[in-house]
Specification:
The structure holds 2 protein chains of 2 kinds. By secondary structure, chain A is mainly alpha-helical. Chain A has helices spanning 19-46, 60-63, 68-88; strands spanning 89-90, 93-94, 97-98. In chain B, 73% of the residues lie in helices and 2% in strands. Classes of the chains: A mainly alpha, B mainly alpha.
Chain lengths: 105, 607
């Protein structure tokens, strides 16, 4: 998944430089995500999934639901990126971001 | 510390001796002979640590105090192995260096870290602690730029403060408890009972562990260091702090909160940071956060998890810093906005970087997985729901910024057009060893668990539920990255710096200095105008011209009453004016005026 947006202009012989191959990798990656969710669902239904929490903890029943970790990880990262962008700038005004020579001024 | 200590054998030599001798020798050697000390000293040291028997101690009498210089227990031995392996790998990586100061100080730095790990009491801990501060700064100064010099001084300020706080804490406790306060027993009860000495010691260790707010030295110093510097720096200072936290504050509840904050806040910074080594610094704080949480939970398994995580972290974080160091060495550039496409000419470095990235992200079969999962599981088992959610968030986040962002922006992303040579052979060997260890420990966690102080408590990381849930969280974090990137929502790498706590002393501090300088200099100038140029000048003129005028005025009435004899009125006036102007009028008269002035001033002052 690291290798998805190689340079599209340059027509070198590298396999990764061809947009078609990058697309293949991304598609393969989508399949992998689906496969893991499928494994989780099957595992939850057919076998016994170990709960990480003891039974008296409120999260006990949610944590064992299929795809809980996937949804949490996805939302966490989307949230992370949007909050970080706000930390950079808010309404077009810089919050924490400064030009590179800021400390030397 | 160790119950066996009382009835144990004396040690022959200090465990740090091999590294110290290597460090001192390398000052006198030149060329590759100096570099060889970086390989042989850690190898000898590693062998010596292996021969140490648990429970051995070494005493030393200094200034009338008996110091327990060395005390060997399982935790010390594990960190001893770790620091020697780290020194060996970093030594191979730095083999091409031809700066005797950097080489010598690097080995002495490693020796100080070994000293901290084996310290038997507070006094020996303090001595090695100071050693860490002084020897480590040369990895920053070695870059020999103005920025590195300034950054080194800021780094030193933090670490010298840490040493002084540690000393103050030790003295407070010594004052209260006497010599029993010098032992390295757990201070958790004292801390929670509000003991000032214990608090000072916690802050001292907290500086080195990069607690929130005390962390800026890390991202400031490491980013300005030489290309080999962070490989050394990342192995020792913060791990010494973790080692000491595990010894002195196991189960201190405040550490759970501190660790949770440490695991969370740096990932936001890491996403928008452009300097890739600084991204690694933030992810380092995030990883130490996991260890601090583990120590705060304080169960035997959680402490084991924290120590195991320190062990694996040194290897994979060193590996990531090595790959970024190689990029900096070959291209002279480390900003994500100016890199990209390097996989074409640096395939080996790319591969090693991805191994490090997979390890830090805790992919199954890589080292991070077997250590981080202990801490997360223990957080859940002990009912810390919010902390568990934070750690899970941090796990997803660390994959996002360290696992994907680092390799992606350095080696893939847009093609920067840079075609550097592959990293030098010594760097590749060092990265290869680290990569091997990352995968080896990931696949054979029992090797690591057996070395832990509590033996890993029979923990099994490779449970089907655990592997599936871990893969799920990682793949869906990657999915978020992929989709946001494809939709153009991912924040691009921009040439920029981000404000952190260092703003307080680097900008507000400088602003304070500037405003003070303006205020006091203006006041000074005003006072100069008012008193020196104004008042003094006027007094001066008055003392010179005043007497002439006064005498002129007085001359007529004095003539009237016949005080000036029978001379002509105008002639007498002229004479008096001339005398007064030349200052040759009778002394008594000037004394009289002097007295009057004095009285006048006296009145002004006393009013």
């Amino acid at each position: 998944m690291n290798k998805k947006s190689a340079n599209k202009e340059e027509k070198s012989k590298s396999w990764l430089d061809q947009p078609g191959n990058v697309k293949k990798i991304i598609h393969g990656f989508y399949w992998l995500c689906g496969l893991v969710i499928l494994a989780d669902v099957i595992f939850s239904l057919v076998w016994h999934k170990h709960a990480i929490f003891k039974e008296d903890v409120s999260l006990h029943s949610y944590e064992t639901l299929p795809a809980f970790y996937g949804i949490y990880g996805f939302l966490a990262c989307v949230g992370l990126v949007y909050v970080s962008k706000l930390m950079r700038s808010w309404n077009g005004k810089n919050v924490l971001m400064r030009e590179e020579d800021y400390w030397d001024k | 510390m160790n119950i066996l200590a009382a009835s144990s054998m004396e040690l022959g030599a200090h465990p740090a001796l091999a590294l110290m001798i290597g460090g001192l020798l390398s000052i006198f050697l030149r060329g590759k002979y100096a570099s060889m000390t970086m390989i042989f000293a850690p190898l000898f040291g590693l062998w010596y640590v292996h021969t140490l028997e648990l429970g051995s101690v070494s005493n030393l009498v200094l200034f009338g105090y008996e110091i327990v210089g060395v005390s060997v227990d399982q935790q010390a031995k594990l960190f001893g192995y770790l620091f020697h392996i780290a020194a060996l790998v970093a030594g191979i990586y730095s083999f091409h260096l031809r700066d005797p100061w950097q080489i010598s100080m690097a080995l002495l730095y490693a020796a100080s870290a070994v000293g901290v790990a084996f310290a038997g009491d507070m006094l020996s801990l303090f001595l090695w602690w100071e050693g860490l501060a002084i020897t480590s700064v040369f990895q920053i100064w070695g870059r020999k730029t103005k920025e590195a010099e300034d950054s080194g001084f800021r780094y030193l300020f933090f670490h010298v403060s840490s040493g002084l706080l540690l000393l103050a804490g030790i003295l407070f406790r010594y004052h209260g408890e006497g010599s029993s306060a010098l032992s390295l027993e757990s201070l958790t009860d004292a801390l929670e009972g509000g003991d000032i000495g214990a608090m000072l010691i916690l802050v001292a260790i907290g500086i080195k562990a990069a607690f929130p707010g005390l962390h800026v030295w890390l991202k400031d110093g490491y980013a300005e260091a030489t290309h080999t510097g962070p490989v050394w720096l990342c192995a020792f200072t913060t791990k010494c702090a973790v080692c000491m936290l595990a010894r002195l504050f196991p189960g201190a509840e405040i550490l759970i909160t501190i660790g949770g904050v440490m695991a969370m806040f740096p990932i936001f910074y890491a996403v928008i940071e452009n300097d890739l080594r600084r991204v690694l610094c933030y992810s380092k704080i995030n990883q130490i956060g996991f260890m601090v949480v583990g120590i705060g939970i304080g169960t035997d398994l959680a402490i084991d998890g924290a120590i195991a995580h320190a062990f694996t972290h040194v290897l994979y974080k060193g590996l990531l810093f090595m790959s970024m160091g190689a990029v900096l060495y070959r291209t002279g550039e480390i900003r994500g906005s100016h890199l990209g496409g390097l996989y074409k000419t640096m395939p080996w470095t790319t591969g090693f970087c991805i191994v490090g990235a997979a390890s830090i992200s805790a992919f199954p079969l890589f080292s991070g997985f077997v250590s981080k999962s202990i801490i997360i599981t223990e957080a859940a088992q002990n009912g810390h729901v919010i902390i568990w959610l934070c750690l899970l968030f941090a796990s997803a986040g660390v994959f996002h910024h360290a696992g994907i962002k680092i390799p992606f922006f350095a080696f893939f992303a847009h093609d920067s057009g840079k075609r550097p040579k592959e990293a030098p052979l010594n760097m590749l060997i060092a990265m290869g060893i680290s990569s091997f260890l990352c995968i080896f420990l990931g696949c054979n966690p029992q090797w690591l668990y057996e070395m832990l102080p509590n033996g890993g408590m029979g923990y099994h990381p490779y449970d089907a539920t655990h592997v599936i849930t871990q893969l799920e969280i990682l793949l869906f974090s990657a999915l978020a990255f992929t989709l946001l990137n494809l939709w153009g929502k991912y924040p691009p790498e921009l040439p920029s710096v981000n404000l952190d706590v260092d703003w307080i002393y680097r900008k507000a501090g400088r602003g304070f200095m500037l405003s003070m300088s303006i205020f006091w200099n203006r006041l000074n100038e005003l006072a100069h105008q008012l008193f020196i140029k104004g008042l003094v000048h006027k007094v001066n003129t008055f003392t010179r011209a005043g007497q002439v005028h006064v005498l002129q005025l007085l001359s007529d009435p004095m003539h009237e009453i016949g005080l000036l004899g029978k001379v002509d009125k105008t002639k007498a006036k002229k004479q008096i004016t001339k005398r007064a102007g030349l200052g040759i009028h009778p002394i008594g008269l000037s004394a009289l005026f002097g007295l009057l002035f004095l009285l006048g001033f006296l009145l002004l002052i006393t009013r």
